[in-house]
Amino acid sequence: MSRIGKKPIALPKEVSVNIDGRAFWIKGPKGEITHTIPDGIEFAIENGTLNFTCVRQDKFTRSLYGTTRAIVQNHVTGVTQGFAKDMEVHGQGYKAALKGTAVELFVGFSHPVYVEFDKSKVSVEVRQISNKLAAIRISGIDRQCVGDCADRIRRVKPPESYRAKGGQDENKGIRYKGEKVRVKAGKSGK
Predict the structure, then answer these.
(1) What is the pTM of this model?
(2) Are residues 53 and 130 in the same domain?
(3) Residue 151 belongs to what domain range?
(4) pLDDT of amino acid 175
(5) Whole-angstrom distance, CA of residue 76 vs CA of residue 12
């Protein structure tokens, strides 16, 4: 049985939960989010806490038990505090800009690359700090949407491990803020 699934979720006073069958609507100061609870998992609200119990003991339901509780906890955290990912674009001449509902990236290709995002789920801020560095901040109430948007941006030009000249600061690419890129030794030329 999942140890995470057994933990109760404390509901803050500013969060309201509406239940309609298996559907959840969680509303807080930052917004509203919905989630559907899978069959075989029961839930109850008692004394300001939300508890989950696994009714069916088949393998599939047990695997969703802790996951469901973690997703609902993330939704409660999202509508109260929100989630954010900070990213950096490193490289000489590398740029980032907002163009409507897309992030425009100039990262060493012969053309700009556009990464679309849904304005209703995430908000994106872009700052060009210098000619070698741009900062991107992705924020929203749904942790999965924030992480997905950040991953799609990072996949355009991941940090280079072999071509770094002069250490961490000269390593080109898009990375999360504070991410350490391991510089690997290339082939030794003779």
Answers:
(1) 0.85
(2) no
(3) 83-176
(4) 93
(5) 8
